[in-house]
Each structure stands twice: as structure tokens, then as C-alpha cells.
Design brief:
transmembrane, transmembrane helix, DVL, 0% strand
Length: 47
């Protein structure tokens, strides 16, 4: 019985490394910015 591996497994790591460290760093900064904005919005939201 052969084990079939999904083609989507590990593609995110490959895509990240192919874009380089700068792209990965920019993506992480963007994610952190969005999370920070959401947290600030939730904390400052008064009805």
C-alpha cells in the first residue's frame, strides 16, 4: 500500500523560501499590523 502525500502539504514553506527573507518578513509585518489594528479597534470600541 502506497502512502499518497497531498500536493498542498508543505507548499507554504516552499513558497515562503522561494520568495526570500524580505518577502516573508514583509508578510509577517503585514499580519502583525492587521492583528494590532483589530485589537486596538476592539479595545477602543464604545457604544
Amino acid at each position: 500500500m502506497k502512502m499518497m502525500s497531498s500536493p498542498s502539504m508543505g507548499t507554504s514553506k516552499r513558497r515562503l523560501s522561494s520568495r526570500g527573507l524580505g518577502g516573508a518578513l514583509r508578510e509577517q509585518k503585514a499580519k502583525l499590523y492587521i492583528i494590532r489594528r483589530c485589537v486596538v479597534m476592539l479595545l477602543c470600541w464604545h457604544d
